[in-house]
Amino acid sequence: MPISTTQEQHLVDVTRGLSSLSLCMCSIVIITQLSFRSLWTLSFQIVFALVLNDMMFNTSFLYGDASNYGEESSMCQFQAFSVNYFLVCSIMWSCSASYLIDIVVSQSLQTSQNRHDGFSPTILRRKMFVVCQLLPIIPSVMPMWFKAYGSSGVGWCWIKKGKGPNSEYEYIRLFSVYFWNWLAIFYCVCNYWKVSRAMRKLRENVDHHWRNDSPWKVLQLYPFILIFCSIFATVDRFIGVFHQSPYWLKMMHAATQLTLGFWDSLLFLCNPIVLKEFRRKISEWGWVSGKQQHARFRIPMMTFFLLVQIDPRR
């Protein structure tokens, strides 16, 4: 059963509302990382790239329905390309977080003499940029070749809505985003299993840096956020190949996929190292802790109550 016009408008409102929420959270992360030089380690640079692509992905939905200018207009084509490209980039950067954890654990299993052999952060950073930022151009340009970019039917431009189930556009949607999505998830799951086995070997003799450095521990949660935000979207796409997916599934699709930037940003802000930097900056501004603040105001408050008690007008 196709969704009604009212339900379609509800989807548009939810999409723009959640995109705005994620955009605000991503902006906080970007400003935070630009403000603290200590947060420019390789692991935090991956998070920065991930959140930046999330922010651009959410921004693409705030243009409005660009198909009003025509499906072949440059505005509609740009919005469709932005939605597809930045979503795939975000998926790839989540995958790179899992890859970095694998490298750290593998290096920890080696002896201290050859622990850093073959591991260059500069070279690794360049490889990640090629895979995560340049490779997604291929599945994003492919729909242009087939002239598949146009009105998605729900208030923005992406891959065109087919005339019915089992249309060629549904298969293009699966390849342009969801093939890469679940390929990355499959890699992350296999990599997590590999890291878990390696960590058992390191249980008794774990490198101190790996045990206490919070960014490494936080990075391994990003692939799980990707899995959570991709479940309903993938089910919606597969059902859409054969028949019209129900309204509640489309709503869950929007509610999870469009909050990817929100959860990625929240995970960053909950990082103990980020919280430590916030506390350090607050102390530099001259703000005091709760106990110090209580001691500072204790004498004025006692004086106030004393004057009230001896007021001759009472």
What does this structure look like?
This protein is mostly helical. The chain has 13 helices and 2 strands. Strands 1-2 form a two-stranded antiparallel sheet. A hairpin with a 5-residue loop joins strand 1 and strand 2. Helix 9 runs antiparallel to helix 10. The longest helix has 36 residues. It is globular. The C terminus is likely disordered.
Key words describing this protein structure:
314 residues, mainly alpha, two-stranded antiparallel ribbon, 13 helices, 2% strand, globular
Would you kindly provide a brief summary of this structure?
The chain is an all-alpha fold. The chain is 73% helix and 2% strand.
List strands and helices in order, with pairings.
Layout: H1 5-35, H2 42-59, H3 74-109, H4 121-134, H5 137-145, E1 149-151, E2 157-159, H6 168-201, H7 208-212, H8 214-219, H9 222-242, H10 247-257, H11 260-269, H12 272-284, H13 290-309
Helix pairs in contact: 1-2, 1-10, 1-11, 2-3, 2-11, 3-4, 3-5, 3-6, 5-6, 6-9, 9-10, 9-11
